[in-house]
């Protein structure tokens, strides 16, 4: 990652999250992770409003500068984020209620608010830029869901949802809580979302397109780094407290690995094709390096 990291992850506000993936010291497993209270205070300092973003140039870019075939390709990444944010806004409630400490529940409550704001950001982008034909939030969610891959549904609608459902029934099941946070914070947010954000933002910056979207998506990415930093803190504590939680983390990573890798490739992907200016191999390398750094800080060897 040290060769591909951009100025974005060197920014003071990104570094402030202490997400191991943006810290070079994580290569040796040495990162001073923030406490839950510090993460909450950081959330208070890093507020932003979707209504402050100007999408005027984005509308021009989308309809006049970006070719139709490229717009279709971009919809895979946009749809995955839009639907993903909505799914997690709904799913985080039982995870929050199952958290064993009040400080953890307070931070997870801020994450629910963040995910809802991310949905609002995408909805406003779609509406003001004129990306979709639909004219309501529910209709836009339905329209964009057509661009998702089967692997997305496996991760969200099967693997994550089944664990969240179990937590809703049995909030005292800490092992399932560990699995859910591993799946969401380490894989869905840490490996997939932040990797996609990195390359989507970089591509738009290189092309000089969608400045409003880039501004908002940087804010979304900063939120996600803070969430993942929480996940690293929680999972490190759990792995240190009991061997069965360590095994639950490893078991979950192995189970979701094929589906997670599948999400990185759109349904229309062909061998050798570049996605947002990079190859699929480069995308995989970036995602795995981020996971490796976080696992080292949690105290686990990378999963083969």
What this model shows, in words?
It is a single chain. The protein has one domain: Ribonucleotide Reductase, subunit A. Helix content is 72%, strand content 1%. It contains twelve helices and two strands, in the order H-H-H-H-H-H-H-H-H-H-H-E-E-H. The protein has helices at 7-10, 12-15, 36-45, 56-65, 68-98, 102-129, 137-144, 150-169, 174-207, 211-241, 243-263, 280-298, and strands at residues 274-275, 278-279. The protein has a two-stranded antiparallel ribbon with strand order 1-2. Helix 8 (150-169) runs antiparallel to helix 11 (243-263), helix 10 packs antiparallel against helix 11 and helix 10 runs parallel beside helix 12 (280-298). The longest helix is centred in the middle third of the chain and has 34 residues, at 174-207.
CATH class division: Mainly Alpha
By CATH, the architecture is named Orthogonal Bundle
- Taken from the alpha-carbon principal axes, the silhouette is globular
Q: What's the β-strand tally? A: 2
Write the layout of secondary structure elements.
Blueprint: H1 7-10, H2 12-15, H3 36-45, H4 56-65, H5 68-98, H6 102-129, H7 137-144, H8 150-169, H9 174-207, H10 211-241, H11 243-263, E1 274-275, E2 278-279, H12 280-298
Antiparallel strand pairs: 1-2
The gist of it:
Helix 3 packs antiparallel against helix 10.
Keyword list:
mainly alpha, two-stranded antiparallel sheet, globular, disordered N terminus
